[in-house]
Fold these 4 entries.
Entry 1:
Amino acid sequence: MFRGANKVTLDSKSRLTIPTKYRETLYGDFSGKLVCTVDIQNPCLLLYPLAEWEDVELKLSRLSSMVPQERLFQQVILGNATECELDKNGRFLISPVLREHANLDKACMLVGQFNKFEIWHEARWQQQMQQGITSIQSGDFELTERLQDFSL
């Protein structure tokens, strides 16, 4: 389970270093093998341990390539998926296409989201968080049935 937001730096060779607290799990449980793809709802990337990504691929394989919407979804998600491997220093390379999608530069955020991470441009992440908090506090935020029953 991955949680928390971490400031990380994209180095001059387009490598991102995973914080130490996640490395043991990623090396031990997943052999350092990852898959990175685009997020279709936000200008960020999704980074999955390979075993978690294989579950996503299985779901994608169940979609029909004969239904245009399903084929397009497969093309965007699977077509942008890039295999990565952590090096001995906990770094992995982000391809130019993926960096462009998320507008990544030196300052990034690695955000734990249960079974995966999101990778954001730091300023865009801060903006997203401020917009989210403002929306929730404004009272214009529509609570779904599950959110109505949720408590902290």
Entry 2:
Amino acid sequence: MSGNFAMPHPTIHLIERRVSANQFDASHRLTDTEIGELVRLATRAPTAYNLQNWRFIAARTQNAKTRLRQLAYGQAKVSEAAVTFIICGQTPDHTTLADRLRPFVEAGHMPQDMASVWQENVGVQYAEPRAARDEAIRSAALGAATLMYAAEAMNLASGLMGGFDADAVAREFGLARNETPVMLLAVGRAAPGNWPQKPRRPLSEVLQIS
């Protein structure tokens, strides 16, 4: 092996070893600080125009996890993991962008007129409801993936879930009208019995180099 692949970065090992966990140690707990660090790292994921249009609800108490499990078709990992995150995408709101870009502008990285153009572009680009919803889902998915690998880096297991009643979750956990629960992510200490990473399709089937 040559070039940049001679000494793989530790991140590559994280990607190659990650599994989708279904079995969690129900006795394991995470502190507020640990949960906060997971989400802090998740928010380093990219978003269009730096909108940061996401929110992370951490169901950690037994009551919250039990309520959420009922809305996730009884999936045990929702309540057995130390925490299950409801990862919400928010439809882009151009009025929020000035505050989110201000520190970048004040630091001299971006001209103010460019920030103003970005704000106008958001208002136009996401005026159509489908475009706005698509962007909310994209942002939440990127945040979820980053949170998943942050957990792996902290020696925690994770399991993504798309099987839940989104409307019921939105009602039960008080989501705003502009928020969509995109996926759930259980995080905690793995228990015995998880499968290894499942086989992946060959590059010949998924890669086209033009």
Entry 3:
Amino acid sequence: MTYGDAMNARVRSEERRAEIVRAALEVIAERGYRGASLAAVAERVGLTQQGLLHYFPTKEALLVAVLKERDQWDAVPDSRWRVDLLVSLVEYNAMRPGIIQTFSALLGESVTEGHPARDYFAERYRRVRESMAGVLRAEYGEVLPNGLTPERTAPLLVAVMDGLQYQWLLDPESVDMPGAFRDFLRLLGEDVP
């Protein structure tokens, strides 16, 4: 096999893995993690279950790939986040209900003991709280106008963002997710349009 052939095979393999991850996202959004099967994902991409296992040896490995892919879509270096940019993130999320539904379903399932995504979400939330505390500190210093520290406010900020997603998913006609998030930022003392 030539170097060019090897590179082409690697690119095809990476493309196939990406296709499988997208299919897994769809299946999980429709059925939840526990209801999603490797066979259903394999069928979506025209593989046998054994063929899918060549790319992802376990359902848990596929789940981790799905979660990492989802995080890549939202990846912004911590140094670039600002409180006003969080509104843009909420607006962006309002344009992709399928991804938000998948994330929310996995998050809800992961609170059970032994769920394969539990450690992932626990670590993710630790990082997100730390990042949000940094965003708040950069904006307000050591104490926000409400008298709380960035570390005390960060979990509230994250809870509002995620809680609004759940409410919006359940009743998108009644819940203006970006508008409600702007209202929350006003409670922090932020001047948002």
Entry 4:
Amino acid sequence: MTNAIQLYDYHKWSNTRVFSRLKELPKELYTNEIESVFPSLSHVMVHIYLTDALWLKVIKRDSYEQIMAYLGEAQKGTENRSMEELERMFAKLANEYELFLKDNRDAERAFTIEHPMYGKLETNVFELIQHVANHGTYHRGNITAMLRQQGVPGVSLDYVIYLYEKKKDSSIE
């Protein structure tokens, strides 16, 4: 497994664990408004989803204009979605990432992205997958804090736990 594929797999695994944990809790916790970084857990999950969707478009080298048009539509598509609907959207997006990463064998080949405010950046697929995973990790930390704020524990999402689970799963096969 290439580094980019494994890192994305960790990101997907973490998101799946968060959804599993959220489904164990009273439904209202998902949409309860609280004073925190985000107004609700549902807002954080939508933010992670939209950011993941945006970066896949960047990685596929869509233009800034195409990405912004897509993002507007994607935002509308997440409005008032249930947790289960958003989970399905995450799964579909993860499948798109996985197909792209399998087809793109050279994750370290440089290419340039352009942003009207930040300018040009020479980067590669691996660096952008690293960004996606780091961004998700940061906001899953927000989710853990928000759950604790509502009196319930989160779920362990450490990378080493992912590695142990993957090792255990591969020894079963």
